[in-house]
Each structure stands twice: as C-alpha cells, then as structure tokens.
Amino acid sequence: MSDRMTYMTMKARPWLAGAALVAGCLALISFGSRLGTESRAPDELMVASGQASLLTEALTLYQREYGRSPAGDQASVIKALTRGNPRQIEFIEPPPKALNKKGEFIDPWGTPYKIIPMPTPDDPLRLGVYSFGKNKKNEQGAKETDDIAS
Q1: Type and span of the H or E element at 127
Q2: What is the C-alpha to C-alpha distance for residues 88 and 137, in angstroms, rounded to an integer?
Q3: pLDDT tens, per residue, the chain with 150 residues
Q4: Are strands 127-131 and 114-117 parallel, antiparallel or unpaired?
C-alpha cells in the first residue's frame, strides 16, 4: 500500500489511527513486561488483559467496517483482522510470539484466547475475548479467579 493510500485510509477512517496507536502501546507493554522480571504473574495478567482488550477492539472495528463479525475458527478470525479481509485493513498486529503455529492469538500462558458472544443491550452482536488465565481452567468469572474477559 502506498503512503498516499495509507494517508487517505487514515483520513477517511480516523478510528484506524486510534486503533494503531492502541496496538503500538499494547505491543510496547507486552514487550516491556517480559524483560528482566522474576515474578511475572502480575505482568502476565496485565499483558493478557491488554491483549484481550486489543483483540476485542479489533473485533469491534471490523464489525463497524463490514457490518458483521469475521467468521470461522479463531485462526480464521485473526487472519481476517490482520489484512486477510476484502479491503486488506490491518485491525490488529499481534506480536510475533503471540501467535501459535495454527495462527491463533495466545495468552501469556500459551492458550488461545476464546472469542465468544458477549452481547450487551447496546450491541447484541458484540464479541468478547476470554482467557482462562494461568491455571488454564474456565472458572466462569468466579470470585478470586485468574480468568480474564474483555
């Protein structure tokens, strides 16, 4: 894509500039939180929460652009969000180590995030992102859980 096309895309869709800024910030948080720490649990929770929020925002932006959610398994959805869509828009740029061999976006503990319906009164088609956390068990948001939902 040419610089002119990128500029025109950003001018026509100003929310993409915001999404790009969020993506960059979260990538820095993700990278920075993995350097030189012995006790990584709080950092991993912060990274997982940030990644889940980033993925949820990318899903929302895709829905706004196309009027529907990306279809398929998690790897297909991630592909659609990373330029594998009709207009080749990059809604998200996962850090390289955040994708497994299948192309799924994984949490800091190596488990693919779950993309699930999370409707709200304002958005009945809303998709959310869920991580089972470090213990890799679905505790369905119980008190004192390490599960993460966005």
Answers
A1: strand 127-131
A2: 35
A3: 444 444 444 444 555 555 554 555 444 444 443 444 344 567 888 998 999 999 999 999 999 999 999 999 999 999 999 999 999 999 999 988 899 999 999 999 999 999 988 888 988 888 889 887 787 777 676 666 666 777
A4: antiparallel
Residue with tokens 């398994």: 73
Considering only CA atoms, which of 27, 6, 48 is closest in space to residue 92?
Answer: 27
Q: How many CA atoms lie within 13 A of 149 on its CB side?
A: 12
Question: What is the C-alpha to C-alpha distance for residues 116 and 127, in angstroms, rounded to an integer?
Answer: 6
> Can you read off the two tokens belonging to residue 126?
């809303």
Structure tokens at 25: 């910030």
Amino acid at 112: P
Handedness of CA 93, 96, 99, 102 (dihedral sign): positive
Scored b (16 or more CB within 10 A) or e, 43-58 reads bbbbbbbbbbebbbbb
Write down the pTM of the prediction: 0.68
Q: Which H or E run includes 115?
A: strand 114-117
